[in-house]
Structures are given as structure tokens and as C-alpha cells.
Design goal:
The protein is mostly helical. 68% of the residues lie in helices and 0% in strands. α3 runs antiparallel to α4 and α4 (67-79) runs antiparallel to α5 (83-96).
């Protein structure tokens, strides 16, 4: 059931980020209507193509207050690594409709590891009266989880933990949890040296999704710090095996990553004891 829910959520979220605006809500002949219709035509072409970009330019020229045109024009710049160019365009959309596009800019700050600007945008967004739940473009993480991870990346683990816990409390049931939410929480508990809390969160993670290799690593680390070497070794071995599984869950936007060398190093140490 959870995999079906996640798939539906992914489709809805992804579609929502690229779907067209209903042009009929604007008066016929208005600049917004004309811009919207040009954008409708633009998205029929491959994203980032010359044809689509020129149509977005036309849309912006006739409807300079139509935010969606700026947003759609900016997307291929971000995806191709042109952050500054993308920001220059997206900033125009944010000036017009900050509620709709502020989280998208925060996401790209996160991707490019500018955690302070990511935090600034997300704090601004969540302080807005009409802020609503938003997800990363792929739909895999609540942006409040990203905010918590961004705090952690600046070294404030406690604030990161609180932010993620506060986010999870808003869900009606654990069926609403993302496939890596408990992993994010447990990982930060490990980094904050709260090992019992970490074990509790990471064991819950395994009940939801046992295919994240890093979860086993952090469980192993928590048990190792508690001097439970047998359990630690077991989790490290499972995680190292899972890391080699091509079908494992990749945990996009994890914030902190575990590499084969991390497993190898700790396994060598434990086996030599």
C-alpha cells in the first residue's frame, strides 16, 4: 500500500511542477491569457529546447507579470548546471508569487550546497501565513525535512532534529511518512550522539523501508558507540551487502552520504579486534 501511495504522490508532485496553468481563468485578450497560451505551446516542445525558450521569452514580453513563464524558463538552466542564469530568471517568478516558487529556489540552493540560503528561503516560506506542504521536485522528501537537514549541514544538529520531529508530528499516521524520513531523523541523532534515540528511529525506518544501505551503517555506528560490537558488525555487514544491490533505494537528497570506503574501514577495524 505504501509503495502505491508513494508512486501516486510522485506522479502528482512531478506533474504539478510542470503542468500547465488553466489559461481560462484569465480574461480573453489579457496579457496573462496571452502569456499563458504561449506557455501552453512552449511546454509541448522538449524542455530547454530553443523553440520552447523562445516561446517563454514571448510569453514574458507580452505578460511580464505572469510568474509561471519565468519559472518554466528557469527550470532547464538549473537542470543543466547553470545556477546563476536559472536564479536570475526564477527570482522574477518569486517576486511575483513567492508562495509558489520560493521552495523551488530553496531546493536548488540545497542541491548546490548553499545551506544558509536554503535555510533563509525555507524559513521565509514557512513563516508565510498561507504556506502549504511542498516536496522536492521528485516528490521523495517534504521540504521541511530538507530544512532540518540543511540546519544539520551547518552544524546545528539539535535544530535539525527538532525541525524533522516537528514535521513528522504533523502527519496523521506513519502511512504518511516518506520512504526515508526516519532515516533522516535517526542519522541526525547519531551525529548528535543521541544513540538510543538513533537506534529507535532507525529501527522504525527498517519497518518502512529496509532498502537504504546507509540506515544499516548508522545503526551499526550507534551500536558501536554503545559498545555493542556484535550488533554493530551485523548491521555494517548488512549495509555493505545492501550497498552492492543495484535495486536498493537511493535516498535522493539524503544530505549526508555513506560510501563503500566507510563500510570497508569500519569492517576492517571490527574484524581485527
Amino acid at each position: 500500500m505504501k509503495s502505491i501511495i508513494f508512486t501516486v504522490m510522485l506522479i502528482i508532485t512531478t506533474t504539478a511542477s510542470i503542468s500547465q496553468v488553466n489559461c481560462y481563468i484569465y480574461p480573453e485578450g489579457s496579457p496573462e491569457r496571452q502569456a499563458c497560451e504561449l506557455c501552453d505551446e512552449a511546454i509541448k516542445h522538449p524542455q530547454g529546447s530553443k523553440t520552447s525558450q523562445l516561446l517563454f521569452d514571448k510569453a514574458i514580453a507580452v505578460g511580464p507579470k505572469f510568474a509561471w513563464a519565468y519559472y518554466e524558463k528557469s527550470v532547464p538552466y538549473f537542470k543543466r548546471g547553470f545556477l546563476l542564469e536559472g536564479l536570475e530568471i526564477l527570482n522574477e517568478a518569486i517576486q511575483l508569487k513567492p508562495l509558489d516558487y520560493l521552495c523551488y529556489r530553496a531546493y536548488w540552493y540545497w542541491q548546490y550546497r548553499n545551506y544558509k540560503l536554503c535555510i533563509q528561503d525555507l524559513e521565509t516560506y514557512y513563516n508565510m501565513p498561507k504556506a502549504f506542504i511542498q516536496f522536492t521536485p521528485g516528490g521523495e522528501k517534504d521540504m521541511r525535512i530538507i530544512l532540518g537537514l540543511a540546519y544539520a549541514r551547518t552544524g546545528d544538529y539539535k535544530k535539525g532534529i527538532k525541525t524533522i520531529k516537528d514535521c513528522l508530528k504533523t502527519y496523521d499516521s506513519e502511512d504518511d511518512f516518506g520512504f526515508a524520513d526516519y532515516h533522516s531523523l535517526g542519522m541526525l541523532y547519531v551525529k548528535d550522539k543521541q544513540y538510543d534515540n538513533a537506534i529507535n528511529a532507525l529501527e522504525k525506518q527498517l519497518l518502512i523501508n529496509k532498502d537504504i544501505a546507509d540506515t544499516y551503517y548508522y545503526l551499526g555506528l550507534a551500536h558501536l558507540k554503545k559498545n555493542n560490537k556484535t550488533k554493530a558488525l551485523n548491521y555494517f555487514q548488512k549495509g555493505f551487502k545492501k550497498l552492492k544491490d543495484e535495486g536498493r533505494y537511493r535516498n535522493t537528497n539524503a544530505g549526508f552520504y555513506v560510501y563503500p570506503s566507510d563500510f570497508e574501514e569500519v569492517l576492517i577495524t571490527l574484524k581485527s579486534d
